[in-house]
Amino acid sequence: LQEIEEQKKSYQLSLGEIFHVAIKRVRSPLKKEKVVIEENSSLSTKLDNLQSSLVLPILISIMENSLQAKEDACVRLRSEKDHPMVRILISDDAGGIPPNERNTLFSPKRSNKMHGTGLGLALAMQLAESMEATLELLHSDKKGSTFCLSLRAKA
């Protein structure tokens, strides 16, 4: 971010590149087959350096939550483009989020993990809002959940 403020360096990353970097940075024990990137033409959509820097921790937080909720969970990353908007969908088969927890899902200090701080999704929401994006839980049932990050591609 310091480079951005000083305007010394500007770069663009495609959604495909961002997905691959996020997968490498997940802190949970991760086998390659646990995260699937759905291939389509929108993966070539470019985001500027600020958006890339903010999207990465959002993806990582959601993926880590999925992989921590169920040891053998599978996470799917998908993107859709509806110019100028981009939707990033993160789906899992980690068992879903109980209905009574959905209203406070993005609230700080709320966690159902034994050692959780409750800051992951709250920070993810703040990062999304800081770039005028939306982050929402699109669907959740006993099988799994789907989150959607919608933003305007600026690259």
Describe what you observe in this structure.
- By secondary structure, the protein is α+β, with helices and mostly antiparallel strands.
- Helices cover 31% and strands 26% of the residues.
- The protein has helices spanning 2-6, 15-25, 49-69, 120-130; strands at 12-14, 35-37, 46-48, 75-82, 85-92, 134-140, 145-152.
- The strands form two sheets. Strands 2-4-5-7-6 form a five-stranded mixed beta sheet. The chain has a two-stranded antiparallel ribbon with strand order 1-3.
- The chain is globular and about 40 Å long.
- The model has no long low-confidence stretch (mean pLDDT 86).
Specify the oligomeric state: single chain
| Spans where pLDDT lies below 50 across 5 or more residues | none
Helix-residue proportion: 25-40%
The amount of beta strand, in percent, is 25-35%
How many helices?
4
Report strand order across the widest sheet. 2-4-5-7-6
**Mean pLDDT metric:** 86
N/C terminus separation? 16 Å
Structural class, by secondary structure, is: alpha+beta
Query: What is the count of β-strands?
Result: 7
Shape: globular
